[in-house]
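hey can u run this one w/ magnesium ion bound, need the structure tokens asap thx
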Amino acid sequence: MEVQLTAPNGKTWSQPLGLFINNEFVKSSNEQKFASINPTTEEEICSVFAATTDDVDSAVAAARKAFKDASWKSLSGTERGALMLKLADLVTQNAEILATIECLDNGKPYSVALTENVPEVANVLRYYAGYADKNFGQVIDVGPAKFAYTVKEPLGVCGQIIPWNYPLDMAAWKLGPALCCGNTVVLKLAEQTPLSMLYVAKLVKEAGFPPGVVNIINGHGREAGAALVQHPHVDKVAFTGSTATGKEIMKMASATMKNITLETGGKSPLVVFDDADVGLAATWSHIGIMSNQGQICTATSRLLVQEDVYDKFVESFKAKVQELSVVGDPFEESTFQGPQVTKAQYERVLGYIQSGKEEGATVMLGGEPAPQKGKGFFVAPTVFTNVKPSMKIFREEIFGPCVAIVSFKTEEEAIELANNTTYGLGAALFTRDLVRAHRVAREIEAGMVWINSSNDSDYRIPFGGVKQSGIGRELGEAGLAAYSNVKSIHVSMTA
Ligand code: NAI
Ligand code: MG
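ok here u go:
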């Protein structure tokens, strides 16, 4: 059920391959597996067991039993928080192994996994551990005839489905609030990046969580994912991924009227006004689209630049990309950008680049594959100018290191362009005019607006979208609302 792996950086670990159900790793019922590929070398790393519908049944049954069991149900919030803190400590202690696995399986730079993604897991767990004994109901004073109060109750079994772009972070964002509120969980990992969270599963057991509280499975979306969403004993579904899959999930979840949280796609604008610090705007524009190989739901993939500073901004941005976006082996210290996560994503991104060329946009930088030693799903950081709002590269989520730059004349036009999308996840704007900054922030249709930065999200601040970018919020105090029911209790005082 485990295999010994060694990464190019010399780290060695025992990699679990099974489905983590009831604190044990088990095979899938028909022993089906799928391979995980290293996107840098295009070679298979190992194969993991893939859950069948029957396995999803077992995982849900384990979670349901654990939800009712005194070993979990009777814990105080303080005790739940202590388990979460223990898990956070174990994650921190295993940081180098987890970062190594993430680099190998996902292709993100090791240094980023070590300094950003692994700490994010510990931070989110600690943040929600702190809430576990501070998240309670109210007494509502309606006069002497009635004593009324509310209690916050866990929802029950939560089915959580995560994508491959941030395997560790996305899992933590979902586990943190769910466990804080006393739920139990079946977490389905993404097929493309199954390995890091299977290692965390070992730590869940080591931290002392009762069996069945946290179940972690791999499986295909249409099989295991769909079975989880449709399962009659699952009370809630939380999903991060594509808008198309999010819509399917909403439909499937409607049969049993499940509570849902969806965090889906984006085509987030970044607006540069003519009074902005252009150098600062260029720096954040680079971070906002080129980080994580451009595979970020909130990536600011449309740069809208006021005409008076257009040339200056474009030059400055181009210089930043050329200087900072070092493409290479993700285990190399100097690498900023590794490979796209899979061949499918690589081809999808190249397909969008092709469509941009065909529709008449100008490729100012990149626009082609960037293999390393003849291998890997690498795409050169790509900047398009002369982009029209009707083009696919302006309208659709590319999810790669590709950005479209468009100029505008007036604030009204900027707002119209920014909102000219079916999405509404993030948005960024650069100006030194305080009043304009807040005025435009309110006009942009998005769940999050960054003023004079981009994508510096924070686990203490709510995260989520409007329009077709999702339903509900994760992170921050707002993230708790998705994981409990408010029960109202009326006590008649006239008896
Ligand atoms: P996807 O949305 O299909 O997959 C995400 C997760 O959903 C995976 O765990 C998958 O197994 C599961 N899933 C797929 N079909 C399902 C179904 N019918 N029922 C239940 N679960 C299901 O995304 P995919 O195909 O990996 O990527 C395609 C595009 O989606 C990307 O190019 C990108 O544009 C977007 N995307 C957005 C993400 C975000 O953070 N908002 C993350 C990943 C992808
Ligand atoms: Mg992989």
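The chain has a mean pLDDT of 98. anyway lmk if its weird
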